[in-house]
Automatic annotation (TrEMBL):
Gene3D superfamilies: Tetracycline Repressor, domain 2 (1.10.357.10). Residues 29-48 bind DNA. It comes from Streptomyces ochraceiscleroticus. The lineage of its organism: Bacteria, Bacillati, Actinomycetota, Actinomycetes, Kitasatosporales. InterPro entries: Homeodomain-like_sf, HTH_TetR, Repressor_TetR_C, Tet_transcr_reg_TetR-rel_C_sf. The keyword Transcription applies. This is TetR/AcrR family transcriptional regulator. Keywords: DNA-binding, Transcription, Transcription regulation.
Length: 207
């Protein structure tokens, strides 16, 4: 019998299967990934370093959907805004991965390469080294929080008859279906405005 043209198991299939599980139920285990692929758990461990390794495959798959070209050939603040929007769209497609990825160290080389580009952009713009990670972390918080918000119910504040919240009810009644997008635009604009102020006023050091 000839050898199969394609390997039965590889990192690509492991990552894709783990992402399917997380999209479906919010988590995965390595044995579950193995069962869905029809292989032994030990076979999965042959390709990845346990659960942490699979998490990095998830991170790579989602980050690959972020357009790195958004960081090129434009002023730093325009580049950050474009990158943030692409970043948000990538994670909005898989919101159940966010709690897992936000609480795990980033190790995947392809993902680190994108953050290296952002760090370089900020450094070249004039931000001090002590401010680069606070700015990146702040942008992460805005983007990932908004990506989660995009999967939330349209009505987040249910004001029942017994609740005394007339102004909240009126505000909710006046809110458009694009609330999540409006909130993201508002928060991102404020964040970038503050970053511009940091560069204008100096000193460019984290407090």
């Amino acid at each position: 019998m000839g050898r199969p043209r394609k390997a039965l198991l590889d990192r690509e299939r492991i990552g894709a299967t783990a992402l399917e599980l997380v999209d479906e139920k919010g988590d995965f285990s390595v044995p579950e990934v193995a069962r869905r692929l029809g292989v032994q758990t030990a076979s999965v461990y042959h390709h990845v370093d346990g659960r942490a390794g699979v998490i990095e495959l998830l991170r790579e798959r989602i980050t690959d959907a972020i357009d790195p070209g958004t960081l090129s050939d434009v002023p730093w603040d325009t580049a950050l805004e474009r990158w943030a929007r692409s970043y948000r769209a990538a994670f909005a497609a898989h919101p159940r991965t966010i709690p897992m990825l936000m609480t795990s160290p980033i190790r995947a080389p392809r993902v680190l390469a994108q953050y290296e580009s952002v760090a370089g952009l900020l450094s070249e713009a004039g931000f001090a080294p002590s401010l680069v990670l606070p700015v990146i972390t702040g942008l992460d918080n805005i983007v990932l929080g908004s990506a989660l918000d995009m999967s939330a119910p349209d009505t987040m504040w249910e004001v029942s008859e017994g609740a005394e919240a007339p102004r909240l009810a009126a505000a909710q009644a006046a809110t458009s279906p694009s609330r999540a997008d409006q909130a993201f635009d508002l928060t991102l604009a404020g964040f970038l405005g503050h970053c511009r102020d940091l560069l204008r006023t100096g000193p460019h050091q984290a407090p």
